[in-house]
Amino acid sequence: MCSANFPPVGLPACGHRLPAHTERQVTRRIFFVLRSYESRVTRSWALSRFSSPFNLRNKCRCPILRALEHQLQQSHGNSHDLAKNSPGRSFFHVLSGLLRRPQRVLFLWNWKSAGLSILLRAPIFLAATIRGGLAATVSALLTECLFCAVTAGFYGAVVQNLRDAEPQWLTGLFLIVVVPAIFQGLEFVLHRLHGTPHLRLAEIASVAVSAVSSLFNWYAMRRGALLVGGEGRSFGSDLRRLPGLLLAFTAALPRWAGRRKKSAGSSENGVSRTRSADC
Questions:
Q1: Per-residue pLDDT averaged across 143-161, rounded?
Q2: Average pLDDT for 5-23
Q3: CA dist 40 → 2, 55, 67, 95 (Å)
Q4: DSSP letter at 61?
């Protein structure tokens, strides 16, 4: 019933090859349709003849199905090799994709970042407004919690989408300086209109916490923590990883400064040796 002579899979009638992604999808779909049909036929034969379905399947395997399986495995392996060897996504490409499809940020609203941001920022405004009375303190806390729940969740979604973008220095500048500065400006205007007492002191502390927390969010998400959606793990798993990530994050800056100092010293020694050789 099956013939070994068949045209190559993925070639359209005009003779031009389909794109690799489309060809893999077409091959995978044809393969699974044929395999499901073969499984039904094999099961019926096995029940009628009381034979082993596994051995019968190997005997009845169609040449087209074997070729499709081989091509599917080969294309799957090639895609893994390309994924390993390909560089990180371009920052401007990912950012333009977010601007064209802002619903990606809405669907990935990061409730983990929002909750941690509330835990970090609420005590700042509690300490800054506690002398203004109970009503002012409660009002400032509610305003800050509502603001953090909205903005920190969206900020976490932006970080999750941009965490692997290249170059890293541009991604870090955008995530640690540009976006937090926009949110801090909105926060200042909101509290100013709300009449929060001792706003200047609270905003200074909030800016410092925002800079450190933004850097840590990027650091943690690049290591698979604090993610939501299909890439995320349970919040309990993230909380168990937080102490180790905090220690590694705290030690990362001195190590980076030491490497920079060492590289600067080696370059100065090279320049001095070159000058002495010239003399």
A1: 90
A2: 52
A3: 16, 15, 20, 48
A4: -
